[in-house]
Amino acid sequence: MDNAKLKELVTGIVSEASFEESKQFLTVTVSPAQLHQLLKSLKERPDTSFDFLFCISGVDIQDKLMVVYHLESTAHGHKIVLKTGTENREKPEMESIVDLYKGAELHENEIFDLFGIVFNGHPNLRRMFMPDDWNGYPLRKDYVDEVNIIDLS
Amino acid sequence: MEEITKPLTGLEKEEEYFINMGPQHPSTHGVLRLVVSLQGEIVKHLDPHLGYIHRGIEKMCEKDTYAQIIHLTDRLDYLSAHMNNEAICLIVEDVLEVEVPERVKYIRTIMAELQRLNSHQLWWACMGMDLGALTTFFYGLRDREHILDIFEETCGGRLLLSYNTPGGVMYDLHPNFQQKVKDFIKYFRKKLPEYDRLLTGNVIFQNRTKGIGILSKEDAINYGITGPSGRGSGFSCDIRKKYPYSAYPYVKFNEILREEGDSLSRYKVRIDEMWESMNIIEQLIDNIPEGPHTAKMKPVLKLPAGEYFQRVETSRGELGVYIISDGAKTPYRVKFRSPNMCNLSVLDHISRGAKIADLVAIGASFDFVIPDIDR
Amino acid sequence: MKDLWIYDFTSLTAAIESWLESTFPPFWAVTFEMVIIGLAFLLFYALTGLILVYAERRICAFMQNRLGPNRVGPWGVFQTIADFIKLLMKELVRIKEADKFLFNLAPFIVIIASFMAIAAIPFAKGLHAIDFNIGIFYIMAVSAMGVVGILLAGWSSNNKYSLIGAIRSGAQIVSYELSVGLALLSVVIFSGTLQLSEIVESQADAWWIFKGHIPAIIAFVVFLIAATAETNRGPFDLAEAESELTAGYHTEYSGIKFAFFFLAEYMNMFIVASIAVTVFLGGWMPLHFWGFESFNHIMDFIPPVIWYLGKTAFVIFLMMWFKWTFPRLRIDQLLTLEWKYLLPINLVNTVIIAFLTMMKWHF
After folding, report:
1. Domain tally for chain A?
2. What is the pTM of this model?
3. CB contact at 8 A, C363 and C206
4. B209, B269 in Cβ contact below 8 A?
5. pLDDT tens column, B269-286
6. B74-300+338-348: what fold?
7. In A151, B42, B202, B375, which residue has its Cα 20 to 30 A from B336's Cα atom?
8. To the nearest whole angstrom, how far is the Cα of B209 from the nearest Cα of chain C?
9. Cα–Cα distance measured from residue B236 to residue B370, given in angstroms and rounded to the nearest whole number
């Protein structure tokens, strides 16, 4: 499927999606509430069948905490990128996609650990790399650590 | 660190007890702590605890220039150091639309395949050792020394190479390089059947790995298992075939796929990949074109604002590098999609019902390198 | 009984005994005799342990394409002594929660079991400490006591890994006792006696492994496999599987107590090899073939002790070869091997041997 058809399909499922096209991927930005439903249909529809989630990352950009999903279909070969974000930095919440892609379990733990985004519906959300009683979320841009980070600028 | 006094899900029955495998353990390769909940000898539930070698590489990348990030990527999965470096170089060259000389492409591919051979030799050495055949450790490392000597002459380092740089490679090939590589291939072609005689055909080994840790193709895709572990379950995920880069379009090689999905098929995929690597090197080693060993690059590299993704095939799977740039000379965000982390996430699922000894065999067949998981 | 050109040690031992009895009152004579024998065996035990540890390290090094210890003394022969001194000086870590009495008792039980088994083995004609008429039965019974030591070690360490290792080992040793016993039974049937010195003397015309042809070879192979499993060595060493359980049942032992376990393992290997040699390969009997008188006389020139030690060294080399070549078996595969394969083979073999002996179809 090419990008134009994918755009049509996605707008059919979620009407408020916004799109960006780059040389490599088609990027779809939706709100956190619609993400799970969109992913579910993209995965289960036989004409898209995005069954391979090959990257899931957290990004802290322009005061928004975003999660980026890179998906590929092993049957058809097309790729798509989904992004959601929230402005709420005190208690950011998203829906977990572990029921769709089981491999996302450890990755969502990592994003919770480093960004603080809580995933609802995750079977075992806990800190992954940092010690369990650590304060703060290291990969956020406003993270300050007097002891461990030496800022030479 | 809080004391783990009971397993985490709380669903365990009375007769289950849990043990810690790691963080210091002879057969988890690296500092991995597995909290295993057992009933007698049967594994009921498994939980990986990570972070013992978390160095904050992704955070450090935000303060380094693109040429400096190369040195950090070495330390991710150190047994695929060359491919990790290549990923960053490919992104930068792609975005800045720099045409690398042909010589560079050939050198990069030959070095990548030597690195893959190197990594699989170490994997074989450790797999035998984990299963009790302690002699395989020495045989694998003895053969690996030849490749490390070749690396040392040209790149200056044995394990952490930092040989690639955006635009080309750091130094030109040593004059002995071609001859040494050809000698090594001749030598290793005779040694690899010895590996089969020592371990693959052994009845004890086959009983320990056949039918153990079966991973179906759907699970492999769902969990994102790539590399030889995924190909052992029939998931065709070789980036060298799907999205070829460097000199891979110029060579003919087979993608090794097996259907059974157990530890023995993952083992055999890696052994066959060693043969294929040697074929690739042989096709390239005599035809390295002459030319400069690096293209002309600006002294300060700035990627235009945007998001870029590059996938390479490391010895363990698909490494994805996701860079978000805002036009400055350091990236805004770098994310490494680590193949080992995805491979680790399936360990719980496939070891339920296996015994402790099987857990060791499964872990060895997946070939984890923990610094890649923790970054 | 043919004329053997072999020195008979009974004359020497009888001379010592009569000297003791003439010089001292009876109680002291017996006591001194026991002390002399005890010291001789202790010395032999320690020396053999030293040599075996050094031999293992050298042999495994050569198999692994490296040199092994070659610094301490010429060709590294004093390496084991250096290791021993180091182990003596290590701190004896006291475990707080461990059952102290059992914890300290366990290594001694293992050593005592192997010590008692060595006493019955003939090193040359007349050179043995005990010559029961139930020799083989005695050895089997006494070496089975080692299991108790291992189980105690695992239990009293208060450590999950040790417990798993000890229980695995207990199940393994108890199962393989059966195969060992049945394999030895085959030669007992052939020779008609349980007494070890008589079994050796019955091999004066040829060793049982040649006289008993195919069934004896089968019994020998089964015995070798079962004996390797008995001593927790080789492909059956999951009780102390380094890469799974980090040393298993002797994880918590340090210093001299660990040295006891270590030594006992090598001595058990020596004992089991000695039994194999005595029963199947002729013990101290030189290589004779029926009827080749001149050949037999030439073979007799090599002293029997050398024959015995040489054959034992060969069997020990085989056992070491196993360990460094094969991967490890899992516990259920090990028990399957015993109960589903070795035991039926053994039983059928025993019946065949009984039939052969009745029909006198052996040499």
Report:
1. 1
2. 0.88
3. yes
4. no
5. 999 999 999 999 999 888
6. Cytochrome-c3 Hydrogenase; chain B (1.10.645)
7. A151
8. 11
9. 24
